[in-house]
Every structure is written in structure tokens, then in C-alpha cells.
């Protein structure tokens, strides 16, 4: 059984609470006290959509004194009722979809006692907090500021897509034979495609949206306004397919796939071409339903600006503002054939340095500063180092001499780490610039932000006494 263990840092808002001091502000319960380690195991490595996705969460007192652990927003509630796990699928971090509570102040019954070295575990179903809807591999790890991360996230495989239950039964008119069954299947497939399109749009981090290949293919160059318009359209398309009663009527008098009257929701007329189309794939039955539903004024009010994949691609390249209003563009994005990715999870490390005033010291003097290293990517970054660089100007680069260094632990996507550094000032007086650079790791998406900006460092001559003391320290 694979295992991941993290030991959480102490934070100012968290204290090891004595039972007599139980009034704690409700917005600080999501993290753990100092000295509590959290680990996650999968109970079963592969599950079907009908099975619970169970994991065992273990809390261990790694300190030397007893600890009081509040049950709230931990696995000890018997569910995932707080965003205390990081769950990713195909590089996408799943949003927390569980409950949000209003609670009364905690009492002694809400705490668990852990003796030094003691561990207690609870099995929970991940689906109570995160929706595992699509087949494939899910990576699960504790969420928090970890002191060490020595093993990869645990893996759980969902064997196939979770079926989407239709909320409404369609009305079908003038359709004979097996056509009603085909319509039922097509509507279910359309709902699944629309949900996936909606979820993919929602789950893509803002930092990655400009480079999403699938979006650019059908909607062109990224702007926040256009992205939000497409995302809103798929929100409404999915909610219509899953929550409204769609009326279908077979009209063999027209050779086309289908048609609607935009001002008459939610009536869809199916033509001759609909019946020879595949259920899913390019120009499919499911895609046709998405196309037609998008036309309704109360849904997305799309138009038929261009037909076919080739014309839709050209529209995206040349007139992206029209592409976001084109029905076929929405259909092809949802059908996603041939399959294109939304984004690939990558590492992107950024370093920064903050000082409240200019640094000043003597020749060869000791200098201390605080820096931060952030992983602004979505993939986990391995451990690396951060170095202090001395420059003649404010632009800090890897070509500048190294004055000091410190280790940087493994960082999850979106995680930030504070690092304390110390170094000796140059042995010549003058004006310098100091910055920090985090060492590049394998798979990093960009390195132009690995070095911080520079801060001034003034180095002045030492007194005779300071020189003697420095020489003595060098001899040591």
C-alpha cells in the first residue's frame, strides 16, 4: 500500500489547545496543530463508479507532548467535509465540492487526544468532498504546508466514467421504431459531453488559459472576456440538458441534422442527417444536441456563423470574437475529436525577496534576509535550492556570483515556502545589489521568473577593530 506522509508547520493561527480554552474562531479549523503528521492511504487502488473511493487518513502525534486535535474539518467527521486533500486528475486539481457548515463553538467532545507517538485513523469516501467523475488515475495527497514530502501522492484509478443521471425525461414526438431509444442515448451522451466541457473550463487555472491548445483550436486567442463567455455558455448548456425537459420531434422533410427556433426553448427538431451520425465523435448525435441547445436565446444565443471543423478552425484563428458565438465551435470543443488537452500540469518556480529598508553592512560582514519560493504551477516540484546572488545592478541572474544558499523542500502546486538565508558581504566597499534565484528543476515550464529582483546593499569600510575580529573569525 503506497503511503504519503507530511508533517505540518506551526502557524500563528493554530495552537495546541487545552480543553479549558475551546473558543476558537471558526475560520481557522482547516489546518493542524504543530507536531501532528497526516498520511493518506488508498483502501482499494482501483474502483468502479458504483463503488466508494475510500482512503484511510491517519493522524500521528510526532511530538513529545500530548496533543488535542479538533475533529472539525478532519477525516474524523467520517466524511470529507473540508478541503483537506489535494486531488488531481490529468493534471487538473479537483475543486472541493463538499459541505460548508455553520457551527457552534467547540466543546471538549469535539477534540481527540493523541499521546506522543500515537496514531489514529479514519476511512472516508473521497466522493463526499471531491467528485471523481471521469475514468483514469487520481493522485491524492494531504493539503498543507509540509515540512517534508518523501514519497509521491497515492494513486487511485476509476475504471470508467461515472454515468450522468438525467434529471428530466425528454418528450419525443413523431419518432417511430428505435428512434426514441437513440434520442435517449444521444441526450445522455450530450449531457456527459457538456458536463466534461464545463468542468474542463472551470478547472483550468487562470495562469494556463492563454496556452490551452483545445480552447485555441476552437475559440482562438485567449482573452478573459471571451473565456468567461464560453465558460458561461457551457454552464448553461449543461444545466439545460440536465435540468430542463427537452422536446424532440422527428422531421424527415429536411435533409439536415437538426434545427431549432431560438425563441422557442426547448424544442429540437431532428432531420434526416441526424440518424446516420455516430452517437459521439465528430458531427455526432450528442454534439448535434449540444449545437442546437446552444442556439436558444435563454441558453447561449449562438449563431451559425461557420459550419464544419475546417471553417470553425479558420474562424478561431481569424475572428475569435465570432468563434465564441458560433454553435459548431461549441459542438467541436465538447466532442473533442481528435482529442486535444486543456493543459499539461507543469512546475513553475518563482522566487522573491522582501526588505523594509536598504541593506547596509561592513566589508565581509554577515547579512541575513528572508526570501520566498513559490510553485505557481499545477504539478508538484521536487526539492531544490535557492541561492543568494550579488550583482552590480538591479537585474539578478544566474550569471551573478553566489554568496549563499539554502535548501528548498518539495512544493505542491500553488504552495509557497519562506526561506531564511545568510551570507557574507563582499570584501570591497561599494554599492551592490542582492537577489535570490531558485535552481531550475526537471520539467519546469519557464525559468525567466526563477530569480527575484535586486535590493540595494551598501558595503562600507570596517574599523580597525572590526578588521581584527574578522581576521580572527577567518582563522577559526
The strand count comes to 23
Most strands sheet: 5 strands, mixed
- Approximately what portion of the residues adopt beta-strand conformation? 25-35%
Helix percent reads 10-25%
Query: How many helices?
Result: 9
For the largest sheet, list the strands in their spatial order: 3-11-10-6-7
The backbone outline, from C-alpha atoms, is flat
- Report how far apart the termini are: 51 Å
Mean pLDDT: 85
SSE class? alpha+beta
Low-confidence stretches: 1-30, 145-151
Gyration radius, rounded: 29 Å
GO molecular function: metal ion binding; metalloendopeptidase activity
Domain Lysine-specific metallo-endopeptidase: 199-335
Signal peptide: 1-30
Protein name: Lysine-specific metallo-endopeptidase domain-containing protein
Care to describe what's here?
It is a single chain. With 476 residues, this protein is α+β, with helices and mostly antiparallel strands. 22% of the residues lie in helices and 26% in strands.
Amino acid at each position: 500500500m503506497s503511503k504519503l506522509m507530511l508533517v505540518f508547520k506551526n502557524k500563528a493561527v493554530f495552537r495546541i489547545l487545552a480543553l479549558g480554552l475551546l473558543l476558537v474562531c471558526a475560520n481557522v479549523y482547516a489546518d493542524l496543530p504543530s507536531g501532528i503528521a497526516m498520511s493518506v492511504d488508498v483502501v482499494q487502488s482501483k474502483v468502479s463508479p458504483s463503488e466508494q473511493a475510500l482512503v484511510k487518513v491517519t493522524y500521528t502525534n510526532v511530538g513529545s507532548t500530548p496533543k488535542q486535535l479538533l475533529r472539525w474539518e478532519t477525516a474524523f467527521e467520517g466524511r470529507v467535509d473540508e478541503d483537506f486533500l489535494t486531488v488531481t486528475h490529468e493534471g487538473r486539481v479537483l475543486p472541493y465540492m463538499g459541505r460548508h457548515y455553520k457551527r457552534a463553538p467547540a466543546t471538549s467532545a469535539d477534540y481527540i487526544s493523541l499521546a506522543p507517538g500515537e496514531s489514529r485513523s479514519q476511512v472516508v469516501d473521497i466522493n463526499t468532498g471531491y467528485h471523481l467523475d471521469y475514468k483514469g488515475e487520481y493522485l491524492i495527497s494531504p493539503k498543507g504546508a509540509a515540512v517534508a514530502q518523501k514519497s509521491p501522492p497515492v494513486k487511485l484509478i476509476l475504471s470508467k466514467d461515472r454515468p450522468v443521471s438525467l434529471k428530466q425525461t425528454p418528450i419525443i414526438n413523431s419518432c417511430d421504431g428505435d428512434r426514441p431509444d437513440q434520442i435517449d442515448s444521444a441526450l445522455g451522451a450530450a449531457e456527459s459531453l457538456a458536463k466534461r466541457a464545463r468542468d474542463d473550463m472551470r478547472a483550468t487555472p487562470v495562469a494556463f488559459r492563454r496556452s490551452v491548445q483545445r480552447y485555441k483550436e476552437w475559440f482562438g486567442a485567449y482573452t478573459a472576456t471571451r473565456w468567461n463567455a464560453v465558460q458561461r455558455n457551457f454552464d448553461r448548456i449543461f444545466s439545460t440538458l440536465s435540468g430542463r425537459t427537452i422536446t424532440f420531434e422527428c422531421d424527415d422533410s429536411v435533409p439536415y441534422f437538426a434545427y431549432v427556433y431560438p425563441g422557442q426553448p426547448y424544442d429540437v427538431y431532428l432531420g434526416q442527417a441526424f440518424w446516420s451520425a455516430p452517437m459521439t465523435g465528430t458531427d455526432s448525435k450528442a454534439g448535434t444536441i449540444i449545437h442546437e441547445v446552444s442556439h436558444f436565446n435563454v441558453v447561449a444565443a449562438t449563431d451559425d456563423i461557420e459550419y464544419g471543423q475546417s471553417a470553425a478552425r479558420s474562424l478561431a484563428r481569424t475572428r475569435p470574437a465570432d468563434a465564441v458565438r458560433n454553435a459548431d465551435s461549441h459542438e467541436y470543443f465538447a466532442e473533442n475529436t481528435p482529442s486535444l488537452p486543456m493543459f499539461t500540469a507543469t512546475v513553475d518556480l518563482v522566487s522573491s525577496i522582501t526588505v523594509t529598508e536598504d541593506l547596509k553592512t561592513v566589508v565581509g560582514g554577515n547579512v541575513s534576509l528572508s526570501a520566498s519560493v513559490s510553485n505557481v504551477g499545477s504539478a508538484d516540484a521536487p526539492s531544490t535550492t535557492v541561492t543568494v546572488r550579488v550583482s552590480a545592478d538591479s537585474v539578478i541572474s544566474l550569471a551573478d556570483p553566489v554568496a549563499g544558499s539554502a535548501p528548498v523542500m518539495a512544493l505542491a502546486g500553488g504552495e509557497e515556502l519562506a526561506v531564511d538565508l545568510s551570507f557574507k558581504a563582499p570584501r570591497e566597499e561599494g554599492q551592490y545589489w542582492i537577489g535570490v534565484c531558485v535552481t531550475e528543476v526537471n520539467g519546469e515550464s519557464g525559468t525567466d521568473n526563477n530569480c527575484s529582483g535586486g535590493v540595494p546593499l551598501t558595503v562600507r569600510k570596517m574599523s580597525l577593530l572590526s578588521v581584527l575580529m574578522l581576521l580572527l573569525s577567518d582563522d577559526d
